[in-house]
């Protein structure tokens, strides 16, 4: 069970929105912006295929934007919902906006949604070397349940983490 924190706050003027809640004519621009952020933050071998993945009906993306300037995306999270288990695929915050609580807000938002939807647990894989992400997950109570050497390529260990979200 994850810890109950005081709900985190986004920097002023920003909001978390589900991609599907946006006007369809704005969605592609938002996804294009997310793709650019993704290219900067992750090696090409880990680049997420947004066009293919977002077509899957159990995959959702949350974006942090300004409602009046939707293409100013400063963070995103992609997750996949199966019956009782969810998979956190990606979380990323643009470099100049890190350490302002945006990552925490994204995690908090997805956990609330999954809990309301009756999901029992959430799992993810993270590169062992990504300490900011590991710290963030651990602060919510995610625990390592598996590890795989060379998961992300030679010398890059992947950690599988899980959090129970049952009431
Ligand atoms: C991981 C990431 C999403 C965190 O986003 P963020 O908005 O900077 O995180 P927050 O400001 O909400 O920080 C929440 C907590 O995470 C941990 N954390 C975040 N950045 C950290 C850092 N550089 N060093 C240590 N802990 C860190 C801390 O516990 C922090 O709480 P605190 O500020 O009260 O100490 C961001 O660093 C990022 O986009 N990294 C690159 C992409 C990535 O590695 N994604 C994960 C794999 S898919």
TrEMBL record:
Official protein name in the record: Acetyltransferas-like protein
UniProt lineage: Eukaryota, Fungi, Dikarya, Ascomycota, Pezizomycotina
Record-annotated N-acetyltransferase domain positions: 17-166
CDD domains, per database record: NAT_SF
UniProt-listed InterPro entries: Acyl_CoA_acyltransferase, GNAT_dom
PROSITE patterns, alphabetized: GNAT (PS51186)
Gene Ontology molecular functions: acyltransferase activity, transferring groups other than amino-acyl groups
Alphabetized Pfam families for the sequence: Acetyltransf_1 (PF00583)
């Amino acid at each position: 069970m994850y810890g109950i924190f005081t709900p985190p706050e986004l920097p002023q003027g920003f909001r978390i929105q589900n991609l599907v809640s946006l006007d369809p004519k704005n969605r592609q621009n938002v996804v294009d912006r997310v793709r650019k952020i993704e290219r900067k933050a992750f090696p090409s071998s880990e680049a997420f295929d947004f066009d293919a993945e977002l077509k899957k009906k159990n995959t959702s993306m949350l974006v942090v934007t300004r409602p009046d300037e939707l293409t100013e995306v400063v963070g995103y999270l992609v997750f996949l919902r199966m019956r009782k288990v969810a998979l956190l695929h990606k979380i990323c915050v643009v470099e100049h906006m890190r350490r302002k609580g945006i990552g925490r807000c994204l995690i908090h938002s997805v956990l609330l949604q999954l809990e309301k939807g009756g999901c029992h647990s959430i799992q993810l894989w993270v590169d062992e070397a990504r300490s900011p992400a590991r710290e963030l997950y651990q602060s919510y109570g995610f625990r390592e349940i598996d590890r795989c050497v060379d998961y992300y390529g030679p010398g890059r260990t992947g950690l599988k983490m899980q959090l129970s979200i049952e009431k």
